[in-house]
Amino acid sequence: xxxxxxxxAATAAAVLLLVALIIFILQNSTSVQVHYLGFAGSLxxxxxxxxxxxxxxxxxxxxxxxxxxxxxxYARRARQNNPPPDVTSEGRP
Length: 93
Prior knowledge:
Elements: H1 3-27, E1 31-36, E2 39-44, H2 45-81
Antiparallel strand pairs: 1-2
Helix pairs in contact: 1-2
C-alpha cells in the first residue's frame, strides 16, 4: 500500500465515521438537562454524549502525551549516563 492510498483509505474511514456520528446526533435529538460544576443547561442527548466522548478522548490523549514525554526523558538520561562504546577503534589492528 502506497502512502497516497493509505491517506485515501484513512480519509474514507474518517468520512464514514463522521457520517455515522452525524446520524447518531440527529437520531438522539431529545433534549436533556445537564449539570456540571455548578453550570446547568439543556442540549440534545446526542450532543451531550459527543461532548462527553471528546472530553474523554482529550483526557486519554493528555495522559498519553505525558507518559511518552516521561519515557523520552528517561531514555535521554540513560543515554547521557551510559554513552555507547566507541566501535571505530576497538578490535582493529
